[in-house]
Amino acid sequence: EAKSKGRNLFQFYEPAMNERIMERRQLEMDMRQALHRREFRLVFQPRYNATTQKIVGAEALVRWLHPTRDLLSPACFIPLAEETGLIFELSDWVLHEACLNALSWHDNVLVSVNLSPMEFQRNDVADRIAAVIERTGIAPQRLELEITESVMLEDATSALTMMKKLKALGVRLSMDDFGTGYSSLGYLRSYPFDGIKIDRSFIMDLDQTQSSEALVNAIISMGHALALTVTAEGIETAEQLGKVVELACDQAQGFYLGRPVSPMQFRQVVEEMELS
Ligand code: C2E
Ligand code: MG
Ligand code: MG
Ligand code: MG
């Protein structure tokens, strides 16, 4: 009896597990072809001067136009790209595409690209960025690289070396999702960051609690004490924008100000901005 029960359990679990594994392997195979089939797309989310509400730049965010599953968000495939090592090829594509787009915008509009922490596990990250700058001809000071704290947690010394090499190329570096990791303060002091992006979770709470306002205030003051440009991420309401402006935050990004849009739409937005 126990045996048949065991078999039942086995039968219950196995197909489901197999399905998940098969689905993953299928997605992995699909991804290998996706680059060649040109299924990846970029969208651009504007970033604004918080006070004047003028566009200062845009963040490139990748999407996968999968042939049978419609639009996949990065959360669905970036981890897989990291596991399979495809992240390097994908990231090169993102960087190249983002810079090419930026060339069609006004000169003073920056472009931000997210790097995966995994890209810092290889020593060629600065060479790859240098190659993109050379191939596209973008002014390096218009390119901003967003990295998370986890980059420094892996191997702090080599991360610092690589970041110094990146800075030597003239690009900007910003710490993404600030406040979600730990020991941020120490890293900020000794690493060559130009800016921080306060994580959305802190901004979300701004309407609700007093303590989160105190926290955001402290982050902004600390950022400014270190001469960093501070951006608030995930602004969804007028109240949140009002608060961060009041707290002297430099820049703001979020659905309330502008959602991620296609390259063509962003180009139009930038052109209209120049006319006004
Ligand atoms: P991130 O770098 O923190 O990017 C911001 C994410 O927050 C984007 O999600 C954006 O659409 C979303 N967002 C912006 N404003 C708001 C808002 O007001 N409310 C809410 N609820 N969400 C907002 P997305 O595009 O799904 O990207 C998720 C993450 O995937 C990114 O977080 C980034 O870490 C990663 N990612 C995206 N593109 C790339 C890429 O090309 N390479 C790498 N390595 N990672 C990428
Ligand atoms: Mg980012
Ligand atoms: Mg972020
Ligand atoms: Mg985030």
Describe this structure in words.
- This protein is of the alpha/beta class and 276 residues long.
- Helix content is 51%, strand content 19%.
- It contains eleven helices and nine strands.
- It has an eight-stranded mixed barrel with strand order 1-2-4-5-6-7-8-9, surrounded by four helices.
- α10 links the parallel β8 (229-232) and β9.
- It starts with a helix and ends with a helix.
- The mean pLDDT is 91.
- Residues 177, 199-200 line the site of one magnesium ion (MG).
- Residues 24-274 form the EAL domain.
- This is EAL domain-containing protein.
- It comes from Vreelandella nanhaiensis.
Characteristic terms for this protein:
276 residues, alpha/beta, 8-stranded mixed beta barrel, 11 helices, 9 strands, globular, binds ligand C2E
